[in-house]
Input
Amino acid sequence: MSSSFSTHTRTQILQDLSKQPLDLLVIGGGITGAGIALDAVTRGMQTGLLEMQDFAAGTSSRSTKLIHGGLRYLKQLEIKLVAETGRERRIVYENGPHVTKAEPMLLPLVSGGSLSKWSASIGLAVYDWLAKVPRSEQRQMLSADKTQALEPLLDKHSLLGGAYYYEYRTDDARLTIEVLKEAVARSGKAVNYTQVTGFIYKEGKLVGVQAKDLLSNTTYEIFAHVIVNATGPWIDTLDTQNDPTTGNKLFLTKGVHLVVDGSRLPIRQAVYFDVPDGRMIFAIPREGKTYIGTTDTAYTEAPVHPRMTTADRDYLLQAVNYMFPSIHLTSGDVESHWVGVRPLIRQPGKGPSEISRKDEIFQYESGLITIAGGKLTGYRKMAERIVNLAAIRLKQQTGRKFPACQTHHLPISGGQVGGSKGFASYIQEKIHEGVALGLTPTEAEELAHFYGSNTSQVFHYLPPLSDNPQFRILQAQLQYAITHEMTVTPADFLIRRTGALYFHIDWVRQWEQTVWEYMAQIFFWTPAQTQYYRQEILDRLEEASGVATPLVENKYKS
Ligand code: FAD
Output
């Protein structure tokens, strides 16, 4: 059962892309590019997308993994941003309840903190109003005793009270992949490990790109009426190539998250708390672990493999030990971590945490459209703005008309589960189906939560019952990831298709060899290729579990 998003069909897709001009070509396969591709195909545009690493390997797998309105941006009076992203939360959730979940948040109010009871209460009421939060999820203000009862690890001596409200939690890489899968299912064409290396012009107008398949070293020419640069932290590189006078728009900042075992920071719900330097950070329980983040510091190196320093790690450990004084977390407790780079639009005179998170669109003389900044949460609205522009351009160029945005009520891949209301009964159905195939109810339930309405397709790849039960599931997931999610390397699977490197690093250590041996067999890798991909996952393991050491040369490094 091959699909149009299969690793086996990559070359065919590239050949197809180079055959005739597209309506829209998107450069960059993070959430911004994926969202644009989905919006465009649903309006009837012939759409292609090229990604130089794996999909979501840039910032879109390295965020705090929250679908949120960004409460703290209210302090900066970013009313429009908070209103838009706040409202988008529910839409993102309803269109893919398998990949986004409601997450209760506790905001402790402490003496010496940046928020008083009064300002938190007003701020959250404004947030509820701007984001049109349903009554059941609206903020509740709590006494110190009630706050302490909800979170006994907080220091009762400094506690003044708290606020309880809701945000949503997601898996950013899976959200990106599910959005892309939906775009591809609706006739879009997307390929990873294909870098745009140059632009093609006709009479001064941009008409196409040179794109290099980094796996085969073949260069393709791909033509399109409209070309969008959605390369996040890399936008300046391509913009400068298009027009040398337009670079330097971005101010990159680095954000680190630490993962510790849940038993070392056993918080009962997510906590969003003050840090002595005036910033705020999250501690979020997830899959038996707790993750803590983030930092926000200027970053000037290459964005491919940003590294955590001891200063980053110690800052987060000190912050968490300050808010939960009895836990005494040390560097030895950190099991895994990840580092992301924020592509912020430069605002002279402003520091990392003060710069606006809103998105901005740049349109150039040649026709290139660039989008940067923004949030994971606002991806659908960012896409709508870009595709509106593309529709105007296409009408001018071809006379064709395109409808308005179609994605408000459009389930992403895996999201056909009857919305959030239907999800629980859908899961029950899949548990029965999985148990009939020899899975335990828990295994079937976990798969159904993870893959949503694609669960039966994953079940389809379960090998015979006689196989090792743990490997049965892994093999089904791996086969599905190769055939339906264009998984090229073991790292693609263990980092971005499963999220395992961050939340289950010991499981990755246990299974990485099985994964690369299996993939080597399926793809007929040469010994050199096998060694390369094996080394890559070992490097990523070392990177996730250690602090900055010299970078290992990587062919995708820019
Ligand atoms: P990216 O995900 O970086 O995608 C750009 C892609 O372009 C990359 O994959 C890159 O490989 C590719 N590319 C570059 N050059 C080329 C080329 N020449 N050819 C082909 N491909 C190319 N937002 C939220 O809503 N909630 C959060 O909780 C949140 N937390 C965050 C925490 C941190 C630490 C950070 C860093 C960001 C956070 N964000 C959050 C913001 C959010 O993650 C980003 O806004 C979003 O992921 C940016 O996506 P993007 O697609 O624009 O960029």
Q: What stands out?
A: The longest strand covers residues 159-170. The pocket of flavin-adenine dinucleotide is lined by residues 27-33, 50-53, 57-60, 62-66, 68, 195-196, 230-234, 238, 255, 294, 340-342, 374-377 (CB under 6 Å).
